[in-house]
Amino acid sequence: MVAKMVSEKQRDMTSAILLRVDVCAGEIRASAPLAAMNSEELHQTRVNVRKLRCYLGIFRSAFDPSWVEHMLNELRWLNLVLREVRSADVLEARISEICLNHELTDVTPRQFVLDHAQVRIDLVEALGSVRFADLMVDLKAWDPFGEVLRADVDFGELLKKGRKKEWKRFKGVTESRGSDLHKVRIFCKKIRYISELAEEVQMKDHPRRILKLRAIQDLLGKYHDSVELVIWLQSIAAIENVQFLIDLEISAQEALADEFRKIKI
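The structure assignment produced for this chain is given below.
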């Protein structure tokens, strides 16, 4: 149990970390059932699902391996269902903005409307499924303080090692700056969550680095949304005069990529 940790400092750090992991799981339980009705609840659920997956990955060795693998699989499934709706919502908002700004009417393809409706139906069905109910039960029943396998597990050390490893991976994937920017964004999210957790438990970190990671994530988020928009615009290019919009978005992507390249990692 946590109370048997070999030092006061280790025990306090472990308790602080596990408390935040538990809070993350609790926020998923609170927001996930409302995700189909409220876009903000959907967004917050996705963020916390990604965070919990990240935490379980870092502290995997402290818990039962089969249980961790099961939870990661279920959280991965939930994230996939939520991602489809979130992506469709963001794209629809961009489409509406484009139509308004450029006086385009009735350009949303019927298939997009049908697909958007279908992913929402899929989300409602997923949130009403036995699988989702079981996941909520698992998260409610999970007591991270009681699940630690060994009394000598040093969560502070695991967090330090995880932060060092993920920072190295993030720097590696950004070195060429010619790599897939979507992949860079994924790595950026992970090291950001780890760094924010370290900051929350008062482990020494670099506040400026966290701010930089947030800025990079926002920048690459805009890039990703623009890529998705171009894919949609290309799908209607045969029936609508939208090539100028495609050109504008591609120029915007190039500008965002250039802005990213100027950031010193």
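Interim note for the steering committee: The chain has ten helices and no strands. Residues 65-101 form the longest helix (37 residues).
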